[in-house]
Known about the structure:
With 112 residues, chain A is mostly beta strands. Chain A contains no helices and eleven strands. Chain A has strands at 4-7, 10-13, 19-25, 38-43, 50-54, 58-59, 67-72, 75-80, 89-95, 102-103, 107-111. Chain B has 113 residues and is mostly beta strands.
Amino acid sequence: DVVMTQSPLSLPVTLGQPASISCRSSQSLVKSDGTTRLYWFQQRPGQSPRRLIYWVSNRDSGVPDRFSGSGSGTDFTLKISRVEAEDVGVYYCMQGIYWPHTFGQGTKLEIK
Amino acid sequence: EVQLVESGGALVQPGASLRLSCEASGFSFSTYWMSWIRQAPGKGLEWVAHIKEDGSEKYYVDSVKGRFTISRDSAKNSLYLQMNSLRAEDTAVYYCMRQGQDWGQGTMVTVSS
């Protein structure tokens, strides 16, 4: 299975400051159609996960523009330009090209 | 509005069977691939099974192959997960998901004697 490795696993951030999460895959996530099948999900405490980003850098509807995704091949990053209180939760990257699709271990973002 | 409502979770003994259901609404069910994802208590997310739009292709994580079966009924706009020979390690919240985008609220499965 493709291994997705996130870092850091714990991310204390001061309100208003930026945050960055790294995700690395054990194989390239570039599909034959040229798209890169890397996704980011947010799971707030007590809630179901919610997709934030698809295909590396495309924000889902309703996702604030302070969230951005970047990267290529096997190395990806989720950035939050200015952390707000509602951003507390666990963030997961996921690859959607190989079966089974696999998630990273999760990065827990908390407010300092 | 897309809605996915799971049901069927319960407390069962090891070796038992259980069938989870996910009722979908707010979109054309037969045109989307659907999946089951699970999350053990305090742990991360694990993709369990996936079924193509027309049901012609199904994929499973190795740990459930031969024990779990995913299926769908377009007439009822419903997704199912038949779980047999349940083990303690299957204990988790099971989520229904539409094409990697929309998630249900989850249903809890506890396998314990």
